[in-house]
Design goal:
The chain is of the alpha+beta class. The chain has two domains: 62 residues; 35 residues, no CATH class. Helix content is 37%, strand content 17%. It contains four helices and four strands. It has a two-stranded antiparallel ribbon. It has a two-stranded antiparallel sheet with strand order 3-4. The longest helix is centred in the first third of the chain and has 14 residues. The chain is elongated and about 75 Å long.
Length: 126
């Protein structure tokens, strides 16, 4: 798997372009891909700041959080972090040729006994 470029390299690429070089020239000087440097510059011009945020992935699947961020002095880095109580809901239903019937929502993942209970109590009566 390819590894991402460091924050320092991205900042040097933006600084090189700010100094008057093209994105392709900055990529050549930093030994990076031209399309990569172009993306760095597009992102920087869009936000007009150097907010390179690194995200870590803790134990939970969906709880990403920012551990380090950079922004110009005196400004806060801009990024969003998901919050709230995450739970798994499973939706199951029968599809007929003209409509959907027997909808059923389960708190958690579907397992064998739950599926059998769905078939016996919800699907067969329809």
């Amino acid at each position: 798997m390819a590894k991402g470029y460091s924050k320092d390299l991205r900042e040097r690429g933006v600084s090189t372009v700010e100094a008057g070089e093209s994105a392709r020239e900055a990529a050549r000087l930093l030994n990076a891909g031209a399309s990569t440097a172009t993306r760095w510059i597009k992102r920087w011009t869009k936000t007009r700041r150097r907010a390179w945020c690194s995200l870590t992935r803790p134990r939970s699947r969906r709880q990403w959080s920012i551990t380090t961020a950079a922004a110009p002095r005196g400004e806060r880095p801009v990024a969003s972090v998901p919050h709230g109580h995450w739970k798994t809901l499973t939706f199951i239903a029968a599809l007929r040729f003209n409509r959907m019937t027997a909808p059923y929502v389960i708190d958690g993942a579907m397992d064998g006994p739950t599926f059998i209970a769905y078939v016996e109590q919800v699907l067969i009566p329809t």
